[in-house]
Amino acid sequence: MRITGMKKRKEVALAMQRAKKMFIPLFIACLLMGIMVLCGCSAPPEESAPEPSKEIPGNEQDEITGETTEEENGSESGEEEKESVEEVESSLMLTYLGQSAFLLENDVSLLMDPYQPNCGTYGKIDLSVDIVTVTHEHSDHNYAQGGGENAVVLRGLTAAGDWQEVDYELEDFHIYTVENTYHGRNLGKNSIFVVETPHLRLAHLGDLGHTLDEKALTEIGDVDILIIPVGGYYTLSPQEALEVIAQLSP
Fold first, then answer.
1. Structural element, H or E, at residue 154
2. In what order do the strands lie in the sheet with 101-105?
3. Residues facing 170 on adjacent strands
4. Is 152 helix (H, G, I), strand (E, B) or coil?
5. What is the reported pLDDT for 156?
6. What is the pTM of this model?
7. What is the pLDDT of residue 183?
8. pLDDT in tens, 205-224
């Protein structure tokens, strides 16, 4: 009985010694892992292989660069042109003075069909302009003195009352007449003045008293601004005025 008990104690002691030997390395390994976690250490990520760069042949690269440059230049050129057009258009001014008189101003100033000082209750026209146009020789249309002594006077009718062809240019203004038109009630001859600028065309019909024929429409051309008389005796009736507006479609 004693021998058996001693053997068991020895076996237990040996087992405990083996356990201690196994425990110590395991404890050390766990301790090291804990230290690594606390220090934030981790295995380095796998590096992905860089994608091979795609080279563009020299000619193709030049073409791409050239196209981009042309687009940029075109855009800049378009913006500059737009700004230039806006500046010109914004500086063109049309002023109504009364009766059939209008003042058109840009770099050039144009007075159209100025009336005599005793015409109605309108104020006296006393300006200094570059050009005066007179569609016919009635006192409410032919006061050329209102444009100043240095103005070039363009008359659509001669002193004898016949049509007079006008084709005149000054800087950006091109001014010409359209003949073969009359007042209302056959009260005499009338001329039409057309004024062309780089960005619009204006037609002053004077004392027109009838609708326009094909020849006159062709000579006038596309109109942006139409100055048209309405009265029904010396000039167009309201209905006739509507017809002329439809003919020219300003």
1. strand 152-155
2. 93-98, 101-105, 109-112, 131-134, 152-155
3. 173
4. strand
5. 97
6. 0.65
7. 83
8. 999 999 999 999 999 999 99
Which residue type sits at 17?
Answer: Q
Following DSSP, what letter does each residue of 87-142 receive, concatenated?
HHHHH-EEEEEETTEEEEESSSEEEESPPPTTSTTPPPP----SEEEESS--TTT-
CATH of 86-248, one of 3.60.15.10, 3.40.1010.20, 3.40.430.10, 2.40.50.140: 3.60.15.10
Query: DSSP per residue over 12-46, as a string?
Result: HHHHHHHHHHHHHHHHHHHHHHHHHHHTT--PPPP
Mean of the per-residue pLDDT values of the chain? 79
Select the highest-mean-pLDDT range: 25-39, 74-88, 220-234.
Answer: 220-234
Question: In this structure, which long-range contacts are made by residues 125-133, counting pairs with CB atoms below 8 Å and at least 24 apart in sequence?
Answer: 125/97, 125/101, 127/103, 129/103, 130/170, 131/168, 131/170, 131/173, 131/175, 133/166, 133/175, 133/193, 133/195, 133/204
Q: Can you give the residue ranges of every domain in the chain? A: 86-248
- Give the tokens for residue 98: 């009364």
